[in-house]
Design a protein that fits this description.
Low-confidence stretches: none
Strand order of the largest sheet: 2-3-4-1-15-18-17-16
Distance between the termini: 25 Å
Oligomer: single chain
Number of helices: 5
Structural class: alpha+beta
Strand content: 35-45%
CATH superfamily: 2,3-Dihydroxybiphenyl 1,2-Dioxygenase, domain 1
Number of strands: 18
Largest sheet: 8 strands, mixed
Mean pLDDT: 96
Length: about 290
């Protein structure tokens, strides 16, 4: 039985349960900016270049989770070029300036952080080439260095007021969760699900990936140490992973059942929960 996810595993769209669907569509299409790929009843799918990034599900009967609960820390949207990233950052700065929360050079990437109108974290980022990443004893070297957003825009945009038509594609690069315990997260995401651990950040955050990426997922306790299972609330609905073959789905199903994880299998996807009731869905890549 294989104990690892396939190297070509990557992230799919993130589902968010939202209270005000129209306002969230406006934020993510007018500010971020994603494109509205489909809208049927209570569900809107947003993305770029035909690739789904977010699925917004109108769930007005739910309320926001209490402070300190497990759930979504941020959805990280990956852009192909620094120019595309700069276009997206300038768009948010112009249309929703109050949602900017910070920026950083992480050595492997450059990132800009925002909070959407319902309190969900959003990261917009660009990766340096893998040849520029450094690894020490199996751990990727990442840091949080100062990144001046205004200087970044000046360097990569000739006219920040122009529409972001340089953004041909964007996709979910990684998903960062708030959890109650990092060691429990390692047991689930590494030992059971099959990611490789790429960085243990002082015991307060764990970064994991498939195929040598710096991280496809991360789990931290910065705001949620000791949190238990989530109760129904607005925010994260589902994290999607995409694997390359049906054999990979089968191996994962076998592995999760071996570890005692309840798995729903509809023949095309696997769905299960992590220890904090975050829903994980695994499907075949298109």
């Amino acid at each position: 039985m294989s104990d690892k996810l396939a190297a070509a595993t990557h992230m799919g769209a993130v589902t968010l349960k939202v209270g005000d669907l129209d306002a969230m569509i406006r934020y993510y299409t007018e500010a971020v900016p994603l494109q509205l790929l489909s809208h049927a009843g209570p569900t809107a799918t947003l993305g770029r270049g035909g690739v789904p990034v977010l699925v917004l599900v109108h769930t007005p009967e739910l309320r926001h989770a209490a402070s300190g609960q497990a759930g979504l820390y941020h959805t990280a949207i990956l852009f192909e070029t620094e120019t595309a990233l700069a276009s997206a950052v300038a768009s948010v700065a112009r249309r929703a300036p109050g949602t900017f929360t910070g920026s950083a050079d992480h050595l492997v990437s450059k990132a800009f952080y925002f909070t959407d109108p319902e309190g969900n974290g959003v990261e917009l980022y660009w990766d340096r080439a893998r040849t520029q990443w450094s690894w020490t004893h199996g751990q990727v070297e990442m840091d949080t260095l100062f990144l001046d957003p205004n200087q970044f825009l000046r360097e990569h945009l000739s006219d920040p007021s122009t529409e972001p038509d340089s953004i041909r594609a964007a996709r979910v690069g990684h998903v960062h969760l708030s959890v109650g315990d990092v060691s429990i997260a390692r047991d689930f995401y590494v030992d059971r699900l099959g990611f490789d651990a790429t960085l243990d950040f002082h015991g307060s955050a764990l970064f994991v990936s498939a195929g040598g990426y710096h991280h496809h997922m991360a789990m931290n306790v910065w705001n949620s140490r000791g949190a238990g299972r989530r109760q129904p609330a607005l925010g994260l609905g589902e994290v999607n992973l995409l694997v390359p073959s049906r054999d990979d789905l089968g191996a994962l199903h076998e592995r999760m059942r071996h570890h005692g994880v309840d798995v729903a299998d509809d023949g095309a996807t696997l769905t299960f929960e992590d220890p904090w009731a975050n829903s994980i869905r695994v499907a075949l890549a298109a």
